[in-house]
Design goal:
This protein has about 650 residues and is an alpha+beta fold. The chain has helices at about 1-20, 40, 55-60, 180-215, 215-235, 240, 250-275, 275-280, 280-295, 310-330, 335-360, 370-450, 460-490, 500-510, 515-520, 535-550, 615-625, and strands at about 30, 35, 45-50, 70, 75, 80-90, 100-105, 110-115, 130, 145-150, 155-165, 170, 175, 495-500, 520-525, 530-535, 560-565, 575-580, 625-630, 640-645. The strands form 5 sheets. Strands 1, 3, 4, 6, 8, 9 and 11 form a 7-stranded mixed β-sheet that branches.
Length: about 650
C-alpha cells in the first residue's frame, strides 16, 4: 500500500510538472518597448502550415505543440492548398500601453482571420477578418490587415492568426502599441502616397511626351508606368481603400491584371530601348511572343481567374528578364559607350525585378535588401528610365536636325550647281556661236584662196592643208565642248546604230593629219563584230584618248590602239578598246582621279589642256553602259586606257 501511494504521488507530481511546463513559443512580456518589428517578434511567434487547410480554431488551440518558432520572416510562396497559422502569447501586466496593434505587412493576402482569447480563455471581440477577398470584420481600415488587441485584462492573452491566400504567402507580422502606431502610420502612408503620386505624375509626363514628341516608345513607357503603378496600388493595399470602397474581389483582380500587363510591357520596353531588335532578331521575336502571352494573361483575372495565373506570369517575366540579360552580355563587346551606359541600368532593373520575383516565390529569404528590391526597381523605372528615354529622344532629334541641315545644304548645293551648270551652258553656247562665225569666215577665205591658187606651190599647198586641219581641229573642240555640256545636263538623246569601230577609228585618225596617222598603230581582228552605239560620241572619246596619248608621248614613240572581243566580269559579251602610249604614264594614286572634271596631274602642268578629256570619255562610255579604267603597265612606261562596251543594244543612261 505504501509503495502504491508513492507511485501515485510521483505520478501526480509529474503530471503537475508537465502541466506547468511552458508549451510552444515563450510568452512575450510587454513592458516599456513600444514596437516589435517582424524580426524582433520572431522569438515569440509560433507558426504552423496546415496542409489541406482543414484546421479550425479548436484544432489550433488543442495542439499548441504544433507551433514552431521561425528563424526568418515567414515566406511560403504560392500554394492554394494550405493555410498558415500563427500563435502569439502576450502579457501586458508590466506595460503602460494596453491597446496594441497586430499588423501583417502584406496587403495582398486573400483571407486573414484572427482570434483573441483573454486570460480567462474567453474570445474577445469575436472572429475578425481582413484581406483583399473578404470584407473587413473587426479590423482597422488600413491598407494592410491590422487588428487592435485590448490587453487590459491582466494575465496571458493568446492570439491566433489564420492566413489562406492564393497570392504569395509572404507574411511579416509586427506588434506596435497604439500611440506609437498612430505616430508612425502617417509617415508610412506619406511615403507610399509620395511613391504612388510620383508614379501617376510620370504617367502624365509620359502621355504628354508621347503626344508632343509623337514617339510610340513613350506610349509604351506610359502603359508600363500605369501598370506598374496599379500593381503597387494593389500590393500596398491602397486600391480597395481608395477606389473600390472595400468591395472585394476588385482589388485582387486589378492587382493580378496589372502585374501581368507590367510583366508584358517591361521586358519588351527594355528590348526596344536597347534596340535589341537590331542585334538579335530571334530574341526580339521571343520578347514579342512573351509580351503577347502576358498581355492575354492580363485579361484572365476579369474573367474570374483572379490571381490564379500570377505565378506563371512571374515565371514568364523572369524568363524574359533572363533573355534580356543574356542578349546584353552577348552584345556587350560590340556596344558603343552610350549603349553600355543605357544597358547598365537595364541590367540592374532586371536583377532587382528577378530578386523581387524570387522573393514572392519564397526562394530568396525576406531580408531588408530583398524586400526593398521591388520598390527600388519601381523608383528606377520612374527616374533613370525616363531620363534615358528623354536622352535618347534628344539624340534622335539632334540627329534629325543635323540630317535636315545636311539635306538643306545638299539642296542648296544642288541648286547652286544647277545654276552654275546653266550659266556654264549658256556661256559655252555663246562662245561656240561666237567661235563658229570667225571659223566659217576663215574656212570661206581658205576655200577662196584654194580656188584662186589653181597651181599652188608645194609650200603653199602645205600651208593650205595646215590651215584646214587647224580649222577642223577648232570645229572639233567646239563640238567637244558642246557635247560635254549636253552630257552634264543629261540631255543626250542621240540614236544608236550599228557601228564599225575599226572604220570609225581610221576616220578619227584621218582628221588628226598625216603625223598622227604615222604614229598611231591600230590592231584589230578581221571579224570584229559591229557595236550598237552613237558613232559621233565614240569618235569624240577616241579622239580624246589618242590626242592625249600623242601629247604625253615623245614625238618618236608610237601609240597603239588595240581592239578585241572580250566579256566583262559578269560574263556580258562586248568589245575591249585599249589606247596605249609610252609617255610619262599615270600614277597609281591618280588612276581614278584622272577621270574627274578639270583634274590634271602635277607632272602634266606644262602641257596644254583643260582636264576635260578623260572626264568626257568616261561620260560617253558610261552612257553606253560600258566601263573605262586605267590598266597597270608592267614595264612602268607609258599609260594604257581600256574602254569596254557591251555588244547588245544599250539605251542611254
Amino acid at each position: 500500500m505504501l509503495a502504491l501511494a508513492l507511485v501515485l504521488a510521483l505520478a501526480g507530481v509529474l503530471t503537475r510538472s508537465a502541466q506547468a511546463a511552458p508549451v510552444g513559443p515563450p510568452i512575450l512580456a510587454l513592458s516599456t518597448v513600444e514596437a516589435y518589428s517582424p524580426r524582433a517578434l520572431l522569438p515569440f511567434l509560433g507558426s504552423h502550415v496546415d496542409h489541406g487547410a482543414r484546421w479550425r480554431i479548436d484544432d489550433a488551440r488543442a495542439q499548441p505543440q504544433a507551433f514552431q518558432l521561425l528563424e526568418e520572416v515567414f515566406s511560403g510562396g504560392y500554394r492554394r492548398d494550405r493555410a498558415f497559422w500563427f500563435r502569439l502569447q502576450l502579457d501586458a501586466s508590466d506595460s503602460t500601453t494596453l491597446i496594441w496593434w497586430l499588423r501583417l505587412h502584406s496587403a495582398y493576402l486573400d483571407d486573414v482571420q484572427l482570434w483573441h482569447f483573454g486570460p480567462d480563455g474567453r474570445l474577445i471581440g469575436g472572429l475578425r477578418r481582413a484581406g483583399d477577398l473578404v470584407e473587413l470584420q473587426g479590423a482597422q481600415e488600413l491598407p494592410a490587415p491590422t487588428f487592435a488587441l485590448d490587453l487590459t485584462a491582466p494575465g496571458v492573452h493568446e492570439v491566433y492568426l489564420r492566413v489562406h491566400t492564393a497570392s504569395s504567402a509572404l507574411i511579416p507580422v509586427s506588434l506596435m502599441g497604439q500611440p506609437a502606431a498612430e505616430r508612425s502610420l502617417p509617415q508610412e502612408l506619406l511615403l507610399i502616397s509620395m511613391l504612388l503620386g510620383a508614379s501617376f505624375i510620370m504617367f502624365a509626363v509620359a502621355c504628354g511626351a508621347a503626344v508632343w514628341l509623337r514617339d510610340r516608345l513613350y506610349v509604351l513607357y506610359a502603359v508600363f508606368v500605369l501598370a506598374n503603378s496599379l500593381t503597387w496600388v494593389g500590393i500596398s493595399g491602397f486600391a480597395h481603400l481608395l477606389w473600390f470602397d472595400l468591395q472585394p474581389p476588385w482589388s485582387d483582380r486589378m492587382t493580378a491584371s496589372a502585374i501581368a500587363l507590367s510583366a508584358s510591357v517591361g521586358p519588351y520596353l527594355y528590348v526596344r530601348l536597347l534596340a535589341l531588335a537590331d542585334l538579335s532578331r530571334r530574341a526580339f521575336r521571343l520578347s514579342q511572343a512573351g509580351a503577347l502571352l502576358l498581355a492575354a494573361a492580363a485579361i484572365l483575372p476579369w474573367l474570374g481567374w483572379n490571381s490564379h495565373w500570377t505565378p506563371w506570369v512571374l515565371v514568364l517575366l523572369t524568363a524574359l528578364q533572363v533573355l534580356v540579360v543574356i542578349i546584353v552580355f552577348r552584345q556587350w563587346p560590340r556596344m558603343a559607350a552610350g549603349e553600355r551606359m543605357l544597358a547598365l541600368p537595364v541590367l540592374c532593373l532586371a536583377l532587382l525585378t528577378t530578386v523581387n520575383t524570387l522573393l514572392t516565390f519564397g526562394v530568396v529569404k525576406p531580408s531588408g535588401l530583398a524586400l526593398a528590391a521591388g520598390p527600388f526597381a519601381h523608383v528606377m523605372h520612374l527616374t533613370v528610365l525616363i531620363w534615358f528615354l528623354f536622352r535618347q529622344t534628344r539624340a534622335a532629334r539632334h540627329a534629325a536636325t543635323e540630317s535636315e541641315k545636311r539635306a538643306l545644304a545638299a539642296e542648296l548645293r544642288q541648286r547652286l550647281e544647277a545654276e552654275a551648270r546653266e550659266d556654264n551652258a549658256n556661256l559655252i553656247a555663246m562662245l561656240a556661236h561666237e567661235i563658229r562665225t570667225p571659223v566659217a569666215v576663215i574656212d570661206a577665205a581658205l576655200q577662196s584662196l584654194q580656188m584662186l591658187d589653181e597651181q599652188p606651190t608645194p609650200e603653199r599647198a602645205l600651208r593650205h592643208d595646215r590651215i584646214g586641219r587647224a580649222l577642223n581641229r577648232l570645229t572639233q573642240l567646239v563640238d567637244l565642248a558642246m557635247a560635254r555640256d549636253r552630257l552634264d545636263v543629261a540631255q543626250w538623246s542621240e540614236s544608236q546604230l550599228p557601228t564599225d569601230l575599226v572604220a570609225m577609228t581610221h576616220e578619227a585618225l584621218d582628221s588628226l593629219g598625216p603625223v598622227a596617222q604615222s604614229r598611231v598603230q591600230v590592231h584589230a581582228p578581221e571579224d570584229l563584230p559591229k557595236l550598237r552605239a552613237d558613232a559621233r560620241m565614240l569618235r569624240y572619246a577616241l579622239l580624246n584618248l589618242v590626242d592625249n596619248a600623242l601629247k604625253y608621248s615623245p614625238p618618236d614613240c608610237p601609240v597603239v590602239v588595240d581592239m578585241a572581243v572580250a566579256s566583262d566580269a559578269a560574263g556580258t559579251p562586248g568589245l575591249r578598246w585599249c589606247v596605249r602610249d609610252q609617255g610619262i604614264g599615270i600614277r597609281e594614286v591618280d588612276a581614278e582621279r584622272v577621270f574627274d572634271k578639270y583634274f590634271r596631274a602635277g607632272e602634266t602642268a606644262q602641257i596644254a589642256g583643260m582636264g576635260l578629256g578623260l572626264y568626257l570619255v568616261r561620260q560617253i562610255v558610261s552612257r553606253h553602259r560600258g566601263t573605262v579604267r586605267v590598266l597597270p603597265v608592267h614595264d612602268q612606261r607609258g599609260a594604257c586606257i581600256e574602254c569596254w562596251l557591251p555588244l547588245g543594244a544599250s539605251s542611254p543612261r
